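Hi all, a correction to my earlier message: I attached the wrong file for Nucleoside-diphosphate-sugar epimerase. Here's the right sequence:
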Amino acid sequence: MHVLITGANGFVGQALTKHILSQGYVGKGKVSRLTLLDRQFDEVVNSSMLGLVVEQHSGDLADDQWLKDSLGRFPMDVIYHLASIPGGMAEKNDELGRSVNLDATMTLLEICKAQTQSIGRKPVLVFASSIAVFGTMPDLVTDDTPLKPQMSYGAHKIVGEVMINDFSRRGWVDGRSLRLPGVLARPPAETGQLSAFLSDIIRELSQGHTFVCPMSAQAKTWASSLPNIIENLLHGAAVEESKLKATRTFTLPTLCFSMAEMVDAIGSVYQQNANELVSYEPNPMIESLFGRFPPLETPSADDVGFKHDGDLNTLVERALLK
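and the right structure:
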């Protein structure tokens, strides 16, 4: 099995790569070749002892010729399309956001189409969409909730979902779009993600450091641990296509909680007096984007086996696992 990961040097991409290299399987398929794409890599993967071929290609995903040249030599079986320009960065640089989030996705779909038409080998494409597609939300979010994105990033993800559905309908790719919630806990870095504070609060309070939260104690959000997201991505490629007839777009099950509840969980898991360490200074823009999340129901995802962390203490505990 040949597996491709775009955005392989990112937070989720590195964790997915590490898992595949350690286990050697995606679902029941044994991985023989792993291709990793990103703008650059923090380290070179030494595959000599892994029993599979690993290739790392550094370049610009918006360069369609580079993308075609990097992927044109070996047929692909499973594609994880994780690469994107996230919310804050896409707002600041519209051209960059569109070139990566839209143009590169379309180029990747065309590569899948060409492979299917030339050799009859239809790849599975797992697309990392986002809950940013919802934007303004009603009192309850379900599979039928209208999409009203507040940022270009969310709009880009909707376009990706629609085109993956259409290419799947036409038999050119076996696509699955997974709407990821906030993923915890990201390492401290300048990524352009406005939700970085959700990771920072766990890391700082767990170490007994003070933290200023940019949302109110009552603000509610959604999030999952990184291990939970990796489990769902792996499951996303393993689900049989026959089970995807009703929909190919899934809002992943995730936990809904207030910031006060998260602080209590951090205190409980890491034995810190977290309530004395945190202060709340709400930023209206941050709270409007990440702090007004309603309850969530995900029957379509539940039916095909996607899962959340189970409870908030488990999420907090798993969030800092190496």
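Sorry for the mix-up. The first helix runs from residue 11 to 23.
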